[in-house]
Amino acid sequence: GCPFPSSEYFRCLPRREAILDGMLGCNLVTFQTHSYARHFLSSCVRVMGYEAGAGGVDAKGSITRIGHCPIGIDVENVEIDRASPGVLPKMEALRKLYAGKKIIVGRDKLDPTKGVLPKLRAFERFLHDHPQWAHKVVLIQVTSPSPGDSADLGTKVSELVDQINGQYGSLEFQPVHYYHQTIERDEYFALLTVADLALITSIRDGMNTTAMEYVICQAEARGSLIVSEFTGVSATLNKAVKVNPWDLGGVARAIDHCLTMPMAERNLRHAALHETVISQTASVWAATNILKLLESLQGEQATQNTPPLDQGALLAKYRQAGKRLLLFDYDGTLTPIVKVPSAALPSASLLRSLTTLCADPKNVVYIISGRDGGFLEEHLGHIP
């Protein structure tokens, strides 16, 4: 689910060739979006000098198929989770706590690429540029702890939250509610269901599952969705409002637009988003990739069938050659495949042919076999 960078960035890696060759050892490489696949193809051409086309990448004679297929969520399980008995009481508690206020929700890892700082700065800009929303909107931001958390980033986020609450809040009201903790699934789905807007401002991201889970949870309320144009999900959820997280003014305007969006527009956008999410599920993603892999293998077998040997051309080349290297496989070529390996013995005609070939000083003859040397020496070692 990770994005693949453009070739200009990828070529900076010290092990770029090893990474690409390792990936090209596969029969099929699938990315989440067309742009990620395009970046990979470009790197194969510009970094490795390989040929790439509609059929895939030709890496030293081996064809690797390249495709793209967006991963989704398990819609059935999400719908079961959001309908669980523990969700409704938490929804009621949230609605009571934030009665009369618009709720913006964000859930991200505490990682620089997830864009939590730009999100808070954009929300601050929103409160500054749209004072009519003072004390009427809250941002509930949850960051899930993980071993890779950045302590410095956590400090900056907390300081910015305090700054926003100090400037735009009061003793009775805080516009930003920040929780750096793991929340239970009942709380999570309750939050997604009561929210009026989901705000995702990742700097770089793959397929953001929170966005898709939010769409399922908003089947009745039809809340709006803002996603960063730098996420893989932005290419899939076409009817989401897309923003550049570095454009704070643009994000602020998008927030205002979504919070004031007419119900008719919300219905149209949500219908399209919902159709995309339920049709591009995790199971569809898995089935599609398995089918692509099978097609790739079938195509490889079809294109790699050994053509019939042109015996006349072979004989002409043989007579012209000053030196000849002859490599013969033993089982299945010199001798037929048999059920009992010890019964695969060289025939009298085979021994005569090998003797004739070895008697020609222009020939160097090797027998290739997985059998032990003792067996080959016993049955072929007498040939001079």
Automatic annotation (TrEMBL):
Signal peptide: none annotated. GO terms for molecular function: alpha,alpha-trehalose-phosphate synthase (UDP-forming) activity; trehalose-phosphatase activity. Coiled coil: none annotated. CDD domains: GT20_TPS. GO terms for cellular component: alpha,alpha-trehalose-phosphate synthase complex (UDP-forming); cytosol. One of its GO terms (biological process) is trehalose biosynthetic process. It comes from the Eukaryota. In the N-terminal section; belongs to the glycosyltransferase 20 family. PANTHER family: TREHALOSE-6-PHOSPHATE SYNTHASE, TREHALOSE-PHOSPHATASE. This is Trehalose phosphatase. It comes from Glaciozyma antarctica.
